[in-house]
Every structure is written in structure tokens, then in C-alpha cells.
Recover the amino acids of this structure.
């Protein structure tokens, strides 16, 4: 397994599926766990401490509310940690974002957008691609397809609104 995808509760899974899908599309092996910084602190720290020696290269952590999971993992491993703030019902995700993004200096967490799990997966893939040419090529093909999709949408909209061609 190369990327550890961790969430604070099974209720985070529908959002964190975005990271799983992004990495699986690119053929990157993942393992998925529920570990809570508050409810299972010992297991969370233990997971972070062993992650590198178990062969993991990047950790992705999603949590909502008092979202300390990514920060606690980053405190206990030297691996890159990407945080996904998850929106809960009451405060719309701003609470999760601020809890995750405001790390003290020396303990970095790369926080993506609220509910931005797909981008967390893609960012992890970009990190791994620095030493994996095949993965870098797969990411480039994906970027080219995304650009082609936008060009096709532009052509369709220009036709629909009579905006002509260049
Ligand atoms: C956080 O509390 C979890 O990451 C989740 O986003 C939130 C709610 O958890 P549950 O009460 O649904 O288990 O720790």
C-alpha cells in the first residue's frame, strides 16, 4: 500500500471516497482506515508512527468539526500529510477547515478545500509521481483529457450563444 487514507469516522466515507477513486483511477494502491484523534488517540498515533516503515508514502486525513486528525498524524510521522476538512451540518465546514489548516510552524499539513477529497488524492499522486514516470504520464494524460473536455464545452457554449469562433 502506498497511500494511507484515514478518516475520523465512518460517516466521513462518502466524502473520502473521492480520494480513493482518484488514486484507484491512477492505479495507486491505497489502504483506508477509520482512526479518530479524539476517540482512538493511541491507535491514531501508533498508525502514524508505523506508517513509513510499513511502506506508506503519503497520508490523507479527512475529519470534520474539531478536525485534529491530520495534525495529530503529522505530529507523529515525517511523511507528507494532506488534510481534507469535512463539512458537518452545523457550521458548514468552516470549523473543520480552520481546525485543520491553522497548524503550528514545524508541523505541516497540506489542507485542501472543504470536502476536497478528490484533490487530496490527486495531490498525493503528484507527490508520488516525482519518482514514478509511469504515474507522471498517467497524470499528464488525465490533465490533457480535462483540458479537452473544457475545450469541447467552450465550443458547445459558443455555438449555443452564437459567440462565433476565434
Ligand atoms: C469527526 O467528527 C469525524 O471526522 C466526523 O467528521 C465527525 C462526526 O463523526 P460521527 O459523530 O459521525 O462519528 O471526528
Amino acid at each position: 500500500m502506498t497511500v494511507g487514507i484515514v478518516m475520523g469516522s465512518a460517516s466521513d466515507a462518502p466524502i473520502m471516497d473521492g480520494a480513493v477513486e482518484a488514486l484507484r483511477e491512477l492505479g495507486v494502491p491505497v489502504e483506508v482506515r477509520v482512526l479518530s484523534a479524539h476517540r482512538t488517540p493511541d491507535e491514531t498515533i501508533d498508525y502514524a508512527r508505523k506508517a513509513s516503515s510499513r511502506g506508506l508514502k503519503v497520508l490523507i486525513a479527512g475529519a470534520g468539526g474539531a478536525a485534529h486528525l491530520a495534525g495529530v498524524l503529522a505530529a507523529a510521522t515525517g511523511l507528507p500529510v494532506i488534510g481534507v476538512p469535512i463539512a458537518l451540518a452545523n457550521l458548514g465546514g468552516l470549523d473543520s477547515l480552520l481546525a485543520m489548516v491553522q497548524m503550528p510552524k514545524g508541523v505541516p499539513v497540506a489542507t485542501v478545500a472543504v470536502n476536497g477529497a478528490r484533490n487530496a488524492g490527486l495531490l498525493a499522486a503528484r507527490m508520488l509521481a516525482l519518482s514514478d514516470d509511469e504515474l507522471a504520464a498517467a497524470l499528464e494524460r488525465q490533465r490533457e483529457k480535462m483540458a479537452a473536455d473544457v475545450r469541447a464545452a467552450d465550443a458547445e457554449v459558443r455555438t449555443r450563444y452564437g459567440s462565433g469562433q476565434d
Remarks:
- The radius of gyration is 18 Å.
- The mean pLDDT is 97.
- The chain is about 50% helix and 15% strand.
- Helices lie at 13-25, 41-51, 69-76, 94-101, 117-129, 133-160.
